[in-house]
Write a structure and sequence with these properties.
The protein is α/β, with parallel strands linked by helices and 133 residues long. It is built from 4 helices and 7 strands. α1 packs across α2. The N and C termini lie close together (7 Å).
Length: 133
Amino acid sequence: MEIIYTLNEIDHIAQLILDKSKSKVLLFSALMGSGKTTVIKSICRQLGVKEEITSPTFSIVNEYKGSLNDVFHFDLYRVDTKDNLHDIGFEDYLDKDAYCLIEWPELSIPFLADYQLVEIKIVDIRTRKLILH
C-alpha cells in the first residue's frame, strides 16, 4: 500500500498504519528528517497514550502506557552492534504483548519473528509518501 500525505493528515495516516498492519512490531525506514518520530507520536496517541511522547534518541527506548497495550518506542540510530541490543534487553521487550515502534531498525531484524515495515519517503518539503510493505 502506498499513500501520499501531508502533516495535517498525520492522524489519519497513523490510524491507517494501525488498521492495515499485520504485526504489533512496526519498523520505520526513512531518511533523517522525513517524519518517522512525527508518525510514531501520532500512532502513540491513537493507541491511547496520554503522557508526553518524546524521541528516545538518547534513552534508546521510551515506554508508554496505552489504553489497551503498552507501547515501546525505540530509536536505534546510536546502537551499533547486536550486543548493544542485548544490553538494553531488546528481546525482553519483544516478549511482551505490546506495540514496538522501531526507528532505524536494521540491527533489530534478526531478532524479529514478524514485523510490518513502514517506509517513509520525502516527496517535497510538505509532502511524504508512505509505503506499507
